[in-house]
Amino acid sequence: MSQNIFALVDCNNFYASCEKLFRPDLAEKPVVVLSNNDGCIIARSREAKTLGIKMGLPVFQVRDLLRKHDVVAFSSNYALYADMSQRVMSTLETLAPRVEVYSIDEAFLDLTGLDFSQNLTEFGISVKHIVQKWTGITVCVGIAPSKTLAKLANHAAKTWHKTGGVVDLTNKDRQRKLLALLPVNEVWGIGGKLTKRLQQLGIDTALQLADADPNYIRQHFSVVVERTVRELNGESCIALEDIAPTKKQIISSRAFGERITDKQQMCEAISEYISRACKKLRQEQQLAKHLTVFLRTSPFSDKDAPYSASKSIELDSPSSDTRVFLAKAMLLLDGLWMNGYRYAKAGVMLADFYDPGVHQPGLFDDPIVQKDSDQALMQLMDKLNSKHADTIWFASQGSQQEWGMKRELLSPAYTTNWAQLPIVK
Amino acid sequence: MSAVFIGNADSWPKRPIPFYADPVKAGFPSPAQDYVERTLDLNELCIRHPNATFFVRVDGDSMIEAGIYDGDILVVDRSVDADHGDTVVAAVGGEFTVKQLCTRPSLMLLPRNPAYQPIRPRNGEELNIFGVVTNVIRQMKHK
């Protein structure tokens, strides 16, 4: 049996790179992207990182620093990022037969069993080159026999510029050399709490974790950590998944076993992805405000006409209610669906997350309200409307205006709105 | 000049256009002939590589002799390698510009309007090409 081989492709400074792509005047300038309330820094360009601007910092704390270095700040433009993500991911699908979209800016490629006429490093370089050329987004590629090692290989590719952004970690000696250099908390799935406990056992580096006895680890930690130990030793225990376990956004998608040509079937598939994604969202105890639906034909078929499209929508207020997202997804699908294509893949992405209670919900969109009380609320609303129209109008207007103010640094929807295309002179 | 009617489109590029098997004279499609055989899709015609294709809008008249006018939408394909003579979108001086690429006798971006000067990269300066223009979309009737 052939050895498993995975590649992790990760976009460099994704949100900031999306913003820069359409602003040649910002090519060498530091750029940051702000969270949904323009409150915190959630993405930084290479130049901004060099200035020492940290992730997650509230804007008011670094306002002077931003001003001093002429840092350009953007509100998060999820319509743009989702479209660019979809371009990167479908480009990757032309390069490898099995792709797991792991987050908005990361994907695992399963290269197992592929016959490479070129070596893996060359393959990685060509992936990097093609994604850059086609989409304008720069990526790093880490290649290894397990997903956990591929993650670390990618980390190495990002950290050390000498690598040229591509690291092939299929060689055992290279694996051990790299693991010895990395602290244990750099390992995929090893968080803060776990790191502390491991350190108490004298496990500080990734290599020490790799060399730990798997049985001991299972008894004292969990099967999950045991799996990590095996993965660090090049034994693949985590296969490609259809649903990406991440907290920045949730993506649920799958390549269809057979091509879909019927809209009803597509509705069913999208509904299924929505319900899985929303379930995941509730498990993470998060609310999402942004929904993307995408579908595409097979990039490998010469017979099929190519079609690849995505649409996004922003809810009035964040929700985790399956019904809410389902209704919106069907609207988006109506706009996306074109008869006559043989669809190979579709999926949904939830993004722009909020902790419950952080966002002031509108009167109609409390996600925990049940259907009956929803109706009661509607009736109450109708009654109030006829008597005190002004008051009701004021309340809803207020929340919308507040929202508008908090995205004052929003860039145009360069790729998803005819009225906001980039200008060429 | 004659035109052959091939179908109706209400909006582009979202909708496929019904393709009529029997071509008819412009303006008078017979009800008997409206058997829809398949659909024509402008995406198919204009977009070879959807993942690498971007739309941009033209501002200015530097390319009028190449048939590119103010307000036109350009279909730009990043996956195509730019060759001598191609119309390209490039980043020059911090903004996007559409010009004709000349690689010989020397590298430059050629405007197609005598009122404009060619753009030559200075020594050691790289030409930053965003993509190759494959199609021009112009609205002929404004609502």
TrEMBL record, chain A:
Signal peptide: none annotated. GO terms for biological process: DNA repair; error-prone translesion synthesis; SOS response. GO terms for molecular function: damaged DNA binding; DNA-directed DNA polymerase activity. Keywords: DNA damage, DNA repair, SOS mutagenesis, SOS response. It comes from the Bacteria. SUPFAM superfamilies: DNA/RNA polymerases, Lesion bypass DNA polymerase (Y-family), little finger domain. The keyword DNA repair applies. GO terms for cellular component: cytosol. Residues 6-191 form the UmuC domain. Coiled coil: none annotated. PANTHER family: DNA REPAIR POLYMERASE UMUC / TRANSFERASE FAMILY MEMBER (PTHR11076), PROTEIN UMUC (PTHR11076:SF34). Belongs to the DNA polymerase type-Y family. This is DNA polymerase V.
Automatic annotation (TrEMBL), chain B:
InterPro entries: LexA-like, LexA/Signal_pep-like_sf, LexA_repressor, Peptidase_S24_LexA, Peptidase_S24_S26A/B/C. GO terms for molecular function: DNA binding; hydrolase activity. Keywords: Autocatalytic cleavage, DNA damage, DNA repair, Hydrolase, SOS response. GO terms for biological process: DNA repair; regulation of DNA-templated transcription; SOS response. Residues 18-133 form the Peptidase S24/S26A/S26B/S26C domain. Belongs to the peptidase S24 family. This is DNA polymerase V. It comes from Rheinheimera pacifica.
